[in-house]
Amino acid sequence: MPIAYESTGVEIFTRDLRDPDSRSRRVSAFHTPATFRDALWQEDPLRARLRKLPPLLVGRLRSCQVQAIQDLEKSLAEDRPRALIQMASGGGKTESHAP
Q: Under 8 Å CB-to-CB from 4, ≥6 apart: which residues?
């Protein structure tokens, strides 16, 4: 099994053993069978997929949104698993940009 679970009896952690540098991530509960199945169908583990993100389509995004996304992608590419995006009020954090 490429996915391992660990528990302290209070907290549950999971690791994707397909990732050579895998680390434990806290989860609130064991994954559902459907989520587990979907994870197994992925060719690459999550961190590998994050390194292969498609180009950002900036057409309808504000410059502050583009900067926030680019900074987040850079953080993920540098294998920094925690991030906080802080934007001013009116920065478009909750807007929908669907066509």
A: 14, 15, 17
Report yes or no: 15 and 25 within 8 Å, Cβ to Cβ: yes
What does the alpha-carbon distance between residue 95 and residue 1 come to, in Å, rounded to a whole number?
40
Q: Of 83, 39, 93, which is closest to residue 62 (Cα–Cα)?
A: 93
**Which residues form the domain of 44?**
1-51
Do 1 and 42 fall into the same domain? yes
Q: What is each CA distance from 96 to 5, 60, 61, 63, in whole angstroms?
A: 36, 10, 10, 16
**Does residue 15 share a domain with residue 31?**
yes
pTM recorded for the entire structure = 0.56
Which residue carries 């679970």 as its tokens? 5
pLDDT tens digits, one per residue of 55-70: 888 888 888 888 888 8
Q: Is 13 helix (H, G, I), strand (E, B) or coil?
A: strand
